[in-house]
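Revision sheet: structure tokens.
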Amino acid sequence: MKAIKIKNFTQELSCIEKFESFKKHKIIIDNCEGKAHISKSKKEFKLVYDGVFKYSPDKKIKVAIDDLEYTFQSIDFKEPSNDIFANVSAQHTFDIDKVYKGDINKVALFRMIFFDNSKRTNVFHTKLETVKNDNINTWAFDCVRTNVNQKKYDITQYKNNNKSYFVIENLVASTLKQFEEDAYAIQKGIGFLIGYMPGGQNYIFSGENFIYRRLARKSLKSIFHPVTSNPYSKLHKQKNIADSYYGKLKVIPIEVISNFITEIRNNEDFSVAIIFLMEVSHLKSVVSMPGVFSVILESLANIIITKQNTIEKLITDETLFNKIKSDLNSVLDNYANAIDKNAEIKFRRKIKGLSNSINHKHLTNAEKLRQPFDQLKIKLSCEDEAAIDFRNDLLHGNILMNNETIRTSKEIDNKMLYASAKLYTLLSKLILKNSGYNGYVINHAKFYDKSSNEEYFEII
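Predicted:
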């Protein structure tokens, strides 16, 4: 009987734990005679050296730690601006940006390991399809398998000694550069889908060799995520409503995850939109979210929309249109004495123009925003239509969308949160449907206005 294999990152984590535990750990710097030690403090490695420091043009130095050779890289290793200090013995403190052990710049299998700051157990469950065993690659718990341009990758949430890590590994050998670019797309894609994007610092291993990097972008935690297969997680106080959704909701399939991440990898505009979406969701700014989400919606509309040069006539049957026009004018006749004469004239002009053709080559901004929903056959409710029109308020300086209505601060916050949640839900629909998803998404807006007639989960 073939033994079941379970993913094992013991070797890599042993190395990480050793480095992370350094407190004034003695090191020897090549070509420097002074005393040096390294410490990990506040998520940063700091090198302290007492003596004459030999600066390096490439901002790298070779060191020995416990008789093993490493390379440190730091922008602090540049030559001092005044040459008279270059050969003066002094105590120096440097922030270490990168640590290298051995050479991993070759075609290989890699493991990129992040510290998991999500504070969430089984973070993929109820959101993404996970893998067990495909009879080719290793079985793993809490693991998502994806394809990036047809290359297989695993993303694993791994627990060890009460600590949690995210591990991205390629299952087909590649260059380090290709792996890093694919892995970054995976970070952003998984980040949006589960509401948490790992960042801050990471280690990349190839066998016993590795690179440690201090990253500019920290981990991002969103207040939203698009899908759950467990209605009770969102409706734990409304069990009867959750019961009505039980069995209907599902996780995002591997194929959809792969399509989404591949689009991020191949389309720079799409990639920037997704990271922008994650960053503003992470900030949780009540004022910023509606405006930024509107900008992202417009960006995605331009990315997703299929350009058309056709002219669409909404009502092709002239006899039918004349009947509709007659019925509408009859309704207006009933209210003619109650409305202003100029208003009546304008209404009748609008009725006449209902059958005007739409030139897809020259769409209005409002039509452009709705076009990708139409093309992807995503039905827009009245609430969705109103949310799309928030853009007009925001772009015309009405940041609080109050329409001259006097509201309390709490009412303004609630309005902004509702608008943010509705726009995020619309973005989720576009992103997932464009990636091939069919199923329910969370309508976050309903949770901010439970009195509305909207559904808690909406199907696309």
